[in-house]
Structure formats: C-alpha cells, structure tokens
Predict the 3D structure of the following.
Amino acid sequence: MHSPDDNHSTFSLHLPDETATASFGRQLASLLRPGMVVWLDGDLGAGKTTLVRGLLRACNHVGPVRSPTYTLVEIYVISRIYWYHFDFYRFNFPEEFLDAGLAEYFRDDAVCLVEWPDKAAEHAPPPDLVVRFEFAEPGRTLDVVARSEEGRTCLKALNCGWQDAAT
Ligand code: ADP
Ligand code: MG
C-alpha cells in the first residue's frame, strides 16, 4: 500500500514484515547518491537497522551489518563510495557528536545513514531524506519526507517506481 503525493515531497507505505523493510532498503539503495544524508527516525526495534541491512545487501555488501549502537558509526566502502551508518542513541549530550569528530564523515563522497539524529540535535547535518517508522503491529508504517532537491528527486523515483511495480 502506498500514497503517492502530487508534489513528490512525501511517500508512505506499509511494511508487513521484516522482509518488506529490507526490500524497501534495497529499493532506496539504487536512488541514493554520494553526498546524501538520510535520517532514520523511529523507536527502538522499529526497523531502522533492518532497512540499512537491506540497503547494503543491495550494494553487494556480503559481510555482517551490525548495529552501530556502541561504535557510533559502522563504515562500508563499496565501489569507491563510503557508506556511513550512524547511531546516536547512546549520546547523553548532543555535543558528543562534535567531541567524537563525527562531522568530518559527512562528505561529498559518502552516503550517511543516521539512526537517532535527534540525539545530536542541531549538530547533525541536515538530511536530504527523513524516513520515519511507526509501529503498526505486526508490521510497520513508513513515511519518507524529502528535505532537499536531491531528496525530492528520490521521492519522485519512489512514487513512479512503486506505481510501475503495481501495474
Ligand atoms: P531499530 O534499528 O529501529 O532499533 P531493528 O532494525 O533492529 O530496529 O529491528 C528490530 C526488529 O524489528 C527486528 O527483529 C526486525 O526483524 C523487526 N522488523 C523490522 N521490520 C519489520 C516489519 N516491517 N514488521 C515487523 N517486524 C519488523
Ligand atoms: Mg538500530
């Protein structure tokens, strides 16, 4: 199920199970470009890391995809593109983002996927896309919101791709 949006600034869908979350991650992988930032919002257990796992698998990453909860960032280099997967859940203060030197990861040759961006408050670089997970037991609902021109290009492709897939 999806809700296309005329100006392509939002995209919503229902994810009935874990496979659907990973599958959406795979679809998103083909749309992201170096330099883009994606925020992954949602409570613990919502499916944020599952989406990243699907996304990296689509990029032909074969090793494990671990939650960065303790490491703050997990690094993947695939076809000369850097994929940085962050998780700021354990921050006690937003300034820990700066203290850990994380700002320098947000570069033009890197795609940054960020869990718990709110914990870094205003220090987290602004996103191109925000992916919001809500529990809709037994599945999840997902809203994708564009926050930049590049993000809007992605959403347009998502809306069109989903329509093509449905026909
Ligand atoms: P987060 O990173 O948001 O804390 P995880 O990706 O670690 O969450 O997922 C937590 C659990 O939710 C996993 O057991 C995963 O299998 C499950 N899950 C992921 N997507 C869905 C879905 N669409 N429906 C039901 N369960 C899901
Ligand atoms: Mg996680």
